[in-house]
Every structure is written in C-alpha cells, then in structure tokens.
Amino acid sequence: MKFMPVPSQEDFRKIAIDFYEIWNFPNCVGALDGKHIRMHCPNNSGSMYFNYKGFFSIVLQALVDANYKFINIDVGGYGKQSDGGTFQASALYKKLTTQTLNLPGDTAFPNSDLIMPHVIIADEAYPLMKHLLKPYRKQELNADKEYFNKRLSCARRTVECAFGILRSKWQILDKPILTHPGHADNIIKAICILHNVIIDKEGIEHNLKETQFVFQNENRQAPAGRLNNEAKVVRDNFKAYLCNNP
C-alpha cells in the first residue's frame, strides 16, 4: 500500500525498541487483532458476511506498533471468518510462513545472553507460531504462565486502543456502511492511513484522552490443531525471561 509501506528491518528494530521501552515487552514488532466493521448485507452474499456477533461485517485485521499506529492492515475478510481464519488467509500470514516479512534476525533479550526471534503478539484466537505469540490456555495456567499472559495482554492493548481511537474519530464506523464491500474496503484503508497522520500531528496522549474505550473479552475460540514445538519453546523462553525481569 503506497501510503502504508511494508516496514523495513530497521523500522521493525525501532518498533521493537519502542515496545520494550514503553510496554516492557522485548523483541516485539507489533500487536495483531481483528475488528468487525458493520455493513449492510451485500446482494447475493448469503451468510458470508454474517458474523458470530449477529450482524453483517467485513473484517479489518491490523498490526499496530507501540505508539498505536497501523503498520500493516488487511481489509475485506468475510464477517463469518474467525480472526484466526482471516489471519491465515492474509498476506501477513503468508509473509510470516515464507519468512519474507523483513523481520530482523534473532536478537538477545535486554540484559540477557538468550538469543530469541522477533515476534508479533496476539490473543487466543490466533495460532501459536515461532514469530507469533499468544496467551497460554486457561486450563494449563500456573503462576508463571498467568504472569506471562498479563504481560502479553498489557502490550497487546496497543491494537485495542488503536481500534478505539478509530471508533471515536470516525462516525461512519458507528453504523453499517452503505456501500459495496469493495468500496467499503477503500474507505477503511483511507481511515487507517488518516489515523496514522493524526497520531503524527496531534500526538498519542491527545487521541487517547478523546477515546472512550472499554476493553472487551469476546470469548473467542482458539484454533484447533497441535501447537508447533518450536513455537512452544519460543513462548516458554519469553515466559521465563519476563518472569525473571518483571
């Protein structure tokens, strides 16, 4: 996208520094989540756009930096898809799995000799991958895993806040969008680009003060399937580091 270019390795390094300095989470290059954007049911679309919340929507998947700015978006997923399903159909997923996302090389944690990959953080709806961390499941929690989940959740609020700022700034998102899905995609992309411009011009604090946003637990279901062993080791190492460096 011309006005939201793919971050370079150096861009991702700077984002990782910001996540550590602002949110105390190392080697993190973005927080990922999806938002359902209301729209009227398109003609001849059946239930494709009808989501689990009970309304018609298209999905905005967004990767957000430590300062609430969008660095990667994917717009137009069918409302019936889960966040995990939307992710696995996205260009971001393809770039992660083919190692073409411009991520920096593995780097030691601050004040540590442990070399670890750079990661994206997400909620339980997403698959656990080497470069994508999600919380531990409730049924396997102990004190250390619960602490890891809290630290991840705190850092991941950047994407939730970004969605909250969008909602407070753009009244078109308060009601179903009355246009063809393709046109709606372009409207949402434009809003995300303007969001970044406003953050740059007005600063973060001003926009957060104007945002009335309640964090919601939407009881999303975790994707089925076995967890990748390499990804499990990566998450366990992040957990150990965070527990030893509160």
From TrEMBL:
Subcellular location: Nucleus
GO MF annotations in UniProt: hydrolase activity; metal ion binding; nuclease activity
Record-linked Pfam families: DDE_Tnp_4
Keyword list, A-Z: Hydrolase, Metal-binding, Nuclease, Nucleus
CC terms in the record's Gene Ontology section: nucleus
Family of this protein: Belongs to the HARBI1 family.
The protein's name in its UniProt record: DDE Tnp4 domain-containing protein
